[in-house]
Amino acid sequence: MQVTDFTLAVENLVVDRGNRRIVDGLSLSLAPGEIYALLGGNGAGKSTTLFAILGFLPFSSGTLTVCGHDPRTKPDAVRASVAYLPENVALYDHLTARENVEYFLKVADCPRSRADIEQAFESVSLAATAWDQRAGRFSKGMRQKTAIALALLRQTPLLLLDEPTSGLDPAASADFHGLLEALSARGVSILMVTHDLLGAADTADRIGLIAGGRIADEWRAQESGPRFDLNILHDGFAGVK
Amino acid sequence: MRLVWTIAGAELRLMLRSRLALVGVVTLLLLSAIAAVTSAVQMAETAQARAQAQIETDEQFKAQPNRHPHRMVHYGTYALRPVGPLAAFDPGVDSFTGTVVFLEGHRQNSATFGAARESSDLLRFGQLTPAFVLQTLAPLLLIFLGFAGVARERERGSLRALAAHGASARSILGGKAMALGVVALLALAPALVALGWAAVRQPHEGGIALVIALAYAGYLAAWVLGIVAVSGIARTSQGALIALIAAWALIVVLVPRAAAGIAGVADPLPSRVDTELAIAADLRRIGDSHNANDPHFAAFKTKLLKQYGVTRTEDLPFNYRGALAQEGERITSQLFKDYAARADVIRQRQSGWLGWAGVLSPALSVRDASMVGAATDLTTHTAFMNAAEAYRFDLVQRLNGLQATAVSGTDDAARSKDPLADQRTRISADFWKTMPEFEFNAPSASARMTAMVPSLLLLGLWIALAFGVLGWAARRLERHGA
């Protein structure tokens, strides 16, 4: 595969914040429809990598492209290709779920019809009674669903998720992973930063273990039998923690 | 620009749905509207009362019976400062300087009946006028509505969400500024209506009313830009609020007060008592018209006798006492003028201090521009006092002239002993009717507009500075990944 064929291509990425090197020679790539779970301890550089991909943080060296666009030179094109779900989904409490989605779609210059929005809500199993409720009353799961609906509506080729299942109950977490698989089937590449080993093993096509700002180990899902050896994953994760 | 409108729309929706913000906006609107209405009503009443009082005092003067002209010099009259059409918007120094001057011979009186002296102490804290609301209260309410505009988004993480959806820092700050600008415009609306109404009633004031409105729009724009910039720079909304309240206290309260204090210390104005004592001392030095042996007036007498080729004042073709009164008045009036001119120079220097303080406070610049534009500034008051003094001098000299020409010198000399002579010195009441009435015209609109230029330039600098800080905040936000 050529670099331009990847939705996300990162090569020897180095990100410094102040005098600290947070990301130190990280390389990874995502093909269309691939789900990549980035595991690692606190301060390993997971979120910093996401911020660098979004163009929020400059990087010192290496290459990084999203759908062929460099966030340093074409941040708008990159952001138009990426939907980002932070750990704490930032919805406006004074707006309803529908109004939140409409607003962000408007900001992204991505108009969608009322029917499209309702369909997206249905596909993320957000109860119809919540559509016109103010987000201030939402549980974390409802906020996640609203944000995922927004990501669906944006129809971007890349989805970045930062600890998407933290704080979700097991049922909501399972629903969420089901949604990710559905998105992947549509060709959306997903980079997921997580501590949720089991969730990652259930959903990801590849799992990368980040330590010291670089990928220390990487596993690919097996096509038959258990997708990942959880013991190996656990030992690897415990080793870097 | 599309994004700016979108973000502005969302911010306005937040204000509409937030009870606190709504209360703030409604309070500001109410204050502004109440100030515009009450000030307009109050000023209309004051204008009518002063005009009526001026007519009555003129009529009383003209209705005096046959009298000796010098009795009329001491009877005196009043000059009332007329209320300008824009004074309802900004009464300026009107409440503090006094508006009525008693005009009489030999004396230059101060203006009296300033509203601040007449009313309770509460008035000294500031009248609720459109100018006061816009200068002092509007920035405070804009701070309460706007301090969290960007900082809140940062705290909640929605700033990054906006950026991730393609909103640039520039458009986010622009949108927030536009929303707050709409609120500022709402606050300005009642004042604009008041100014518009004044312009409709006095079309020649339309241009200057527009310039005043633009000055306030610029002042509030500088606040709006500054508030959004600080909100964009501060790490937390609490930090933004503290910084902005401190800036408000400094710009609106401390710098104007300190500047006035410094100006007073740097160029102290002699007190009224000191001035009167100094004038009395000068008068004693120059000469006493009632003292026959006074060197100045002895020389004056000698000069007159020589000029008319006579040896006794009784042989002069006019009443010497009238001429003497004219000369005495000329001297005292010249002294008054000299002292007033010196005080003017000091006041100008003090104004210069305050003008420069506008570099530190846009509130001072807009206050100055507003008072100059509304013709309620100290310069206009000084012009009124000068006009009153010129009128007083002219009136007294006309009466002294009547004493010189219409009253026989012999009768004048004997009037205290001879009732018949006294009767003859009382000239016809018709003379009082020929006396001109006091008129005061405030500086023309074009002159006031020219005088506003320095303050407007300073305001322009503040707006440019606010734009600069906002631009810097946007670059910083972009650099730090929102």
From TrEMBL, chain B:
The chain crosses the membrane at residues 132-151, 177-200, 206-229, 241-266, 451-474. InterPro entries: DUF3526 (IPR021913). It comes from the Bacteria. Keywords: Membrane, Transmembrane, Transmembrane helix. The keyword Transmembrane applies. The keyword Phosphoprotein does not apply. This is ABC transporter permease. It comes from Blastomonas aquatica. The lineage of its organism: Bacteria, Pseudomonadati, Pseudomonadota, Alphaproteobacteria, Sphingomonadales.
